[in-house]
Design a protein that fits this description.
Blueprint lengths: L1 E9 L6 E12 L1 H4 L2 H11 L4 E7 L5 H13 L5 E5 L11 E7 L5 E6 L12 E5 L9 E5 L7 H19 L4 E6 L9 H5 L2 H4 L3 E3 L18 E6 L1 H6 E7 L1 H5 L3 H5 L10 E7 L1
Helix pairs in contact: 2-3
Length: about 280
């Protein structure tokens, strides 16, 4: 299970922050979302974020997403939330969505598209989105998500550079945030191979979740699977922090309660990487 990755961007004036998060929801179905303890944990994580990019949303009808949005708007009175969802993506009978959940009183969707993966390099091609940003320092936010297949991490992460080039040409901007469950550590990718990735050797890419960060919930593992990568000097000037949000500790949950060894827990084995401006 993972922690959410959280990026904190500091708005001009230094008082207000803008939080961008990415979280692997571990096969979020309507059945799973309908469990009270699952929904409670999800909502408590989501209210910390201005934009949350969820992965592994297995929701063909959109019912799980609708339930989540309804509960979020009911329980958090600080402002309304909206959702931007990709179509189901995948190569087999198992398909999943990227879902952006965002505070609609702070940001709005400007544009979005599914990357055209002509060479079939991605198990789940990125669903790129452009959002407004509440500051004139940046004309907009561009988010490029990826839930990489553990069996093809190196190939997919190198192909992510091609997505970067495609987005740069389409929207005439090289300022963007690449984020998600990259599976970029431990058994899926060695430190040596990590250092040889195009996104590590090309100038301008800033990996803001440290390589030694643990984004997993289990005490028996220590892996930096979930990552956030920035490109563009303006992001660098706004960056305040980036880390995995240890929600079990913050919410007073044990490992067993979070992972749910018999199906009783929320079933979220990762932390939540996040950033803020």
């Amino acid at each position: 299970m993972h922690y959410p990755a959280v990026l904190l961007l500091l708005l001009p004036g230094g008082v207000e922050a803008f939080r961008i998060c990415a979280f692997n929801a571990q096969r979020l179905t309507l059945t799973k979302a309908a469990r009270e303890h699952v929904m409670d944990t999800l909502v408590r994580i989501l209210v910390r974020c201005d934009i949350m990019m969820l992965q592994e949303v297995v929701d063909s009808t959109g019912s799980a997403t609708s339930l989540l949005l309804r509960e979020l708007n009911r329980l958090d009175e600080s402002g309304s939330y909206s959702v931007l969802s990709s179509p189901l993506l995948g190569r087999s009978t198992y398909m999943e969505k990227y879902v952006y959940v965002y505070r609609s009183h702070k940001t709005q969707v400007l544009d979005s598209y599914v990357y055209k993966d002509e060479d079939d390099l991605f198990a789940r091609e990125p669903f790129v989105a452009q959002f407004t940003f509440p500051s004139k320092v940046l004309p907009h936010l561009v988010l490029v998500p990826l839930h990489a297949s553990p069996k093809a991490v190196e190939k997919e992460l190198n192909a992510l550079y091609d997505v970067f080039l495609d987005v740069s040409e389409r929207w005439q901007s090289k300022d963007m945030i690449l984020l998600g469950d990259f599976n970029a550590d431990c058994g899926s990718l060695t430190k040596k191979r990590l250092g040889e990735l195009v996104l590590r050797t090309q100038e301008g890419f800033q990996w803001v979740i440290p390589d030694d960060e643990d984004t997993t919930v289990r005490a028996s593992t220590h892996c930096a699977y979930d990552r956030i990568v920035l490109h563009g000097e303006r992001y660098g000037s706004l960056l305040r922090s980036a880390a995995a949000f240890d929600f079990p500790r913050s919410f007073g949950l044990t490992e067993e309660e979070v992972i749910g060894g018999g199906g009783g827990g929320p079933g979220f084995p990762r932390k939540a990487p996040q950033t803020g401006h």
